[in-house]
Amino acid sequence: MGMDRREFIRIAGLSTLLGLGGKGAFEILAPGRVEAEIIPAPGAMKAKRWAMVINQKKLDEATAQQCAAACHRVHNVPDFINPPDDQLKLDPAVAHRYEVKWLWTEHFHNAFPGDAPPHLAEEVEHMPFLVLCNHCANPPCVRVCPTKATFQREDGIVMMDMHRCIGCRFCMAGCPYGSRSFNWKDPRPYVKDQYPGYPTREIGVVEKCTFCAERLAQGLQPACVEVSGGAMVFGDLEDEKSQVREYLRTYFTIRRKAHLGTNPQVYYIV
Amino acid sequence: MADYKNEFGFFAERPKVEKKLFDRNKVIAGLVIFLVMITIPLWQNLGKTVAAPAPNLDTPAIQKLAEKDKKCVMPTEWMRANHMQMLVDWRDNVVRTKELNVPTSRGREFVAPDGKQYLASLTNTCFECHSNKAQFCDQCHNFVAVAPNCFGCHLETGKKLAEAK
Questions:
Q1: Residue A31 belongs to some domain of the structure
Q2: Are residues A54 and A12 in the same domain?
Q3: Strand partners of residue A236
Q4: What is the domain-level CATH number for residue A78?
Q5: B97 interaction partners in chain A (CB closer than 8 Å)
Q6: Which one of B109, B152, B159 has the shortest CB-CB distance to A202?
Q7: ∠ CA A227-A157-B99 to the nearest 5 degrees?
Q8: Could you give the 3-state DSSP secondary structure of residue B133?
Q9: What is the pLDDT of residues A107-123, one digit of tens each?
Q10: Contacts of A239 (CB under 8 A, 6+ apart)
């Protein structure tokens, strides 16, 4: 029985591999994978520091309401003021206490308390300012959360993990912007059209805007930005070519309660 | 018999205290009733058999799949034993991305051993096929008497985001 040199080396090599690593050695070298794993989604939008610029000059009341409605629709935010069913109607005197808001409008003197001069420009006085979670660089809500249910991601988004929230509402006390809402009642019956792609919340957790983290992961702009018709701009603050930086270079912007040191990352062009 | 002494003086003999269960009948009857009460669940279910769970795979989304694609993200046996742990992993990877205390944080795309990729999402991937909670999820959950609270938030009518838009 003859064996040429090539065959000998091949058999010797394979035997060595089997001797050293057993069957597993072959499986690792074989094409394909041995185990399941989790990888980042392809096509996700990435940034070092997400930020938003809201151009109030372009924003009228109708657009602002449209932005808020789009946000609340894709995140299954309940509507306690105008419930979908008449039987669910709450006493109007207390309904606003149950209200859950991610994105809503305020007047200047409420959005920027203390910043209004005695005689504010009339146009600004009546402007609907879109307000939301500012995704502060120094978020007080994260500092006070006892369970780390709210935390800051590497890209600056102040994220909520509803699975961990125990409903202590420290974050609501910590947030100087009132951006957080508590679910006093089971929200599900009050969600008008259930948006199938996103979970609802349960009674007893705090919720707020997440800069549409789930949409960014799919490479989509936040829902409010998409329908704002250019009045809202979202992008990477660290990327000097981003539209956010371009706006910040071009226009004078203000931030809500910046003197508190939370370093809010939502900028307003007035 | 030796004298018995107590603190008051001497007795001729140790005083006889009757060793007796007072209200004997009532006590025993009470004990019997108590035992029967706490074992009622046992008596009630004696001899009964509970039907084995029969999770139903007959949903429109699964029927639409080609025969060779009719499989879960992991083998059925593995899923039966480990789906809860897998969902917890998915949750940590998706929600708590790059969080320091979750060393496994990587992303929201699940790659099965056969190389196929799935969005790691209970609402958008699992419920996409298993849209029949009562006939699928609840079957085993009720059988083993567990009440996972996933469904309090995650809508059972999963649908791909693309379709919803």
A1: yes
A2: no
A3: A50
A4: 3.30.70.20
A5: 153-154
A6: B152
A7: 140
A8: coil
A9: 999 999 988 888 999 99
A10: A47, A48, A245
Cα–Cα separations (whole angstroms), residue A116 to A59, A60, A224, A251, A256:
20, 20, 27, 19, 12
Among B78, B94, B101, B155, the strongest candidate for a mutation testing the A interface, having the largest count of A CBs within 10 A, is B155
> Of the given ranges (A193-197, B107-111, B129-133), which has the lowest mean pLDDT?
B107-111
Q: Which domain holds residue A229?
A: 50-269
Give which of B79, B131, B161, B163 to mutate to test A binding, by max A Cβ within 10 Å. B161
Q: Is the pLDDT of residue B163 over 90?
A: no
Distances (CA, A) of B137 to A195, B61, B127, B134, B142: 21, 16, 10, 6, 9
Is A247 a member of any domain?
yes
> Is residue A222 located within the same domain as residue A184?
yes
Residue A232: count of CB within 10 angstroms of its CB: 25
Q: What is the pLDDT of residues A154-206, one digit of tens each?
A: 889 999 999 999 999 999 999 999 999 999 999 999 998 888 889 999 999 99
> What are the contacts of A215-220 at 24+ separation with CB within 8 A?
A215/A74, A216/A44, A216/A45, A216/A50, A217/A41, A217/A44, A217/A45, A217/B108, A218/A41, A218/A43, A218/A44, A218/B161, A219/A43, A219/A44, A219/A45, A220/A45
DSSP class of residue B115 equals S
Rounded Cα distance between B116 and B72, Å, is 11
pLDDT mean across residues, chain A: 91
Q: Which two tokens stand for residue A179?
A: 């951006």
Cα-flanking dihedrals φ and ψ of residue A176, to 5°?
A: -80, 0
A119 plus A215 within the same structural domain: yes
- Contact list in A for residue B124 (CB cut-off 8 A) is 197
Mean pLDDT within B97-117: 68
Q: In whole angstroms, give the CA distance from residue A129 to residue A112.
A: 10
Question: Chain-centre distance of CA A263, in angstroms?
Answer: 17
Measured distance CA(B57)–CA(B130) in Å, rounded: 7
Q: How far apart are CA A240 and CA A135, in angstroms?
A: 20
Q: What pTM, to 2 d.p., does this model score?
A: 0.78
CB B93 within 8 A of CB B105: yes
